[in-house]
Amino acid sequence: MYLKLILSLLLCGIALSKANSYWGYKVYDIDAKNDFEKEVLFRLSGNDDYDFFNLPKIIGKPARVMVQPKDQMEFETTLNKFGIDYSVINDDLGQTLEIERLQNNFLRAALGRSSRISFSNFQRFEAINAYLDDLAKAYPNRVSVKTIGKSYENRDMKAITITDGQSSNKKKAILVDGGIHAREWIAPAAALYIIHQLVENFEKNSNLLKEYDWIILPVVNPDGYEYTHTNSRMWRKTRRPIDEKCFGTDGNRNFDYHWGEVGASGVSCADTFKGPTAFSEPETRALRDLMLTLSGRAKMYLTLHSYGNYLLYPWGWTSELPETWKDIDEVAQAGASAIKKATGSQYAVGSSTNVLYAAAGGSDDYAYAEAKIPIAITMELPAGGSGFDPSPDQIQPFVEETWIGIKAMAEKVIEKY
């Protein structure tokens, strides 16, 4: 209560954040009751003025969309015309984001710089890289850090390799990444929690490292991630200029496997812009190269996203399933079951196209088809706030729950392979 009072006073007395351009934006939950209403929403999602945070195919799971003030009347009129039920879950996203920004910055300043990571606030990119380097110094026999590439704005993309001290580069491997979409802050936080558990809680989790090395890239899109901290909190893409007006590519539509066929936009300003060519972005090329170096070794690829409580697997470009889908499903179901047993949270499990939406050019499809990683899973973490904006006090419970599922999936992979 005391912290909220401080934040309220700060809101009245300080200049507004440059990162907050969402004053007056509304966030809607829309409950489509049948296939016709789902189709209406699908058509609305083609309008780039509407930012659909979530558009599941499953009846009973609401869609969520952010609408700027100038479009709200028309949007509500359209829904009313078709008799589609909706509710406004946030009538001023800008105010919410400002409170969360102040709270996060307050906690960061209070905690200061430490060699230990905190899960009470969201970390900036520089602090994430520093944490990886600190671990490599503190645990040189079990941890190594390598820069696998540079972002467009010349930031080091650092991947950490975690072993039990017996690595020979021939052990099997699990590859994890997060933060390919800039605004999904909980994904890098979850990646950091995996690192924390495997390194700083090694004794408890040593069984996960006996036969496997873990390679983790916490932030695939560092430029976009920093941009969400400094300029636009809901920015999704990379930051490389595309033309005179538009910046960035959706990294999870930029991989060269059925690139651009479905669920990706050719409009350069669109949030789901596929890029001018496959692998047009230095960030996706760096991740691709990392995958390919692990081909044959890596048995699971896990990419962390938010939001929505999903465990998804190939394909993203078609509703058909890969030949070995049952193997992937078994692993994903192990994660969902472990989470449900521990916390009661329910994760939907299935192929991306059949459970959520079609989206070609994704990293999981590429990992499975081209890097030959037999288990490829996208984990969509829980929603916080309006979706992509968990409050700092939600970080710890979210990443702890996520770890329960990831550990169960890893144990299933170790058992199978």
3D structure, described in words:
The chain is α/β, with parallel strands linked by helices and 417 residues long. It has two domains: 26-91, Alpha-Beta Plaits; 120-416, Zn peptidases (Aminopeptidase), CATH 3.40.630. The protein is 38% helix and 18% strand. The strands form two sheets. Strands 5-6-8-7-9-12-10-11 form an eight-stranded mixed beta sheet, sandwiched between helices. Strands 2-3-1-4 form a four-stranded antiparallel beta sheet, covered by helices on one side. A hairpin with an 8-residue loop joins strand 2 (50-54) and strand 3 (63-67). Helix 10 packs across helix 13 (392-416). The longest helix is centred in the last third of the chain and has 25 residues, at 392-416.
Summarize the SSE layout with pairings:
Blueprint: H1 2-13, E1 26-31, H2 35-44, E2 50-54, E3 63-67, H3 72-81, E4 85-90, H4 93-111, H5 125-138, E5 143-150, E6 156-162, E7 172-178, H6 186-200, H7 202-205, E8 212-217, H8 222-230, H9 282-293, E9 298-306, E10 310-313, H10 325-343, E11 348-351, H11 352-355, H12 363-369, E12 375-381, H13 392-416
Parallel strand pairs: 7-8, 7-9, 9-12, 10-11
Antiparallel strand pairs: 1-3, 1-4, 2-3, 5-6, 6-8, 10-12
Counted beta strands: 12
Uncertain spans, ≥5 residues at pLDDT below 50?
5-16
Biggest sheet features:
8 strands, mixed
- Class per helix and strand makeup: alpha/beta
| Rg from alpha-carbon coordinates | 21 Å
Trace the largest sheet across and list its strands. 5-6-8-7-9-12-10-11
Distance between the termini: 50 Å
InterPro entries: CARBOXYPEPT_ZN_1 (IPR057246), M14A-like_propep (IPR036990), M14A_act_pep (IPR003146), Peptidase_M14 (IPR000834)
Keywords: Carboxypeptidase, Disulfide bond, Hydrolase, Metal-binding, Metalloprotease, Protease, Signal, Zinc
Active site: 380
Domain Peptidase M14: 121-413
